[in-house]
Design a protein that fits this description.
InterPro entries: DUF4230. With 223 residues, this protein is α+β, with helices and mostly antiparallel strands. The protein is built from four helices and six strands, in the order αβββββααβα. A hairpin with a 3-residue loop joins strand 1 and strand 2.
Length: 223
């Protein structure tokens, strides 16, 4: 067998082997129903900032959000799309101490607080699930619709959290922390706030009266 014949035989075997492997892989994947997906992510850090934010209260919320949208087509057909969204959120409320204004009294172990900031939501960790999605013939959900729904649901969750007792809990917690910390180091804290700032602080320091009736358990002696 000359060299040309041998080279042709080797090339034929290689091509046949590669082709056979490809055919075998195709049928194997088709039989197993295997799907191959590719993922690529790019993380960009825009900026890093130093902050002094302290969490003082943590709350968990569940929101059931009904979305409906009607589209009138030529005043003949009412095309509706709707969805039920259940949102769960973990809300952290606290203070940004960079907004706190104070000054020490020279020659004394005393600090005067001139301005006390409002409690604020430091983060909301949300989880959304869509149920009962119905779409019309022409009035169908688009990517912008889902974005708008999630933004509105998040804003509603934000409002409900600020209307709850979380800000009041945070207000009491932060004052207790500041005064106890100062006392542990033999310092005194005095509040010299403006009238509006004082009223705001009092609002966030007092709890609302709970509108609920409590049935106390009766013991055998009371019966």
């Amino acid at each position: 067998m000359d060299s040309n014949t041998l080279l042709f035989l080797i090339i034929t075997l290689l091509v046949g082997g590669v082709g056979g492997a490809a055919v075998y892989s195709f049928f194997l994947n088709r039989k197993a129903g295997k799907s191959i997906s590719s993922h690529e992510a790019t993380v960009l850090i825009e900026r890093i900032e130093k902050v002094f934010k302290v969490v003082m209260a943590e709350g968990y919320f569940t929101e059931i959000y009904n979305y409906e949208n009607d589209k009138n087509i030529w005043n003949l057909i009412n095309d509706r799309k709707k969805a039920l969204i259940i949102a769960k959120a973990k809300v952290l409320v606290g203070y940004d101490f960079s907004k706190l204004k104070f000054h020490p009294v020279e020659g004394e172990r005393r600090i005067i607080i001139d301005f006390f900031p409002k409690p604020e939501i430091l983060s909301i960790d949300t989880d959304y699930k869509f149920y009962d999605i119905e779409q019309g013939w022409l009035n169908r959900f688009q990517s912008d619709d889902y974005t708008a729904i999630l933004n509105e649901a998040k804003q509603t969750m934000n409002d409900k959290a600020m209307q709850s007792d979380l800000p009041r809990i945070a207000g009491n917690q932060v004052q207790l922390m500041i005064f106890q910390l100062a006392a542990s180091m033999n310092w005194k804290i005095e509040l010299q706030l403006s009238e509006s700032n004082r009223i705001m602080l009092e609002e966030y320091a007092s709890y609302r009266i709970t509108e609920a009736e409590i049935d106390f358990l009766k013991t055998e002696k009371d019966k």
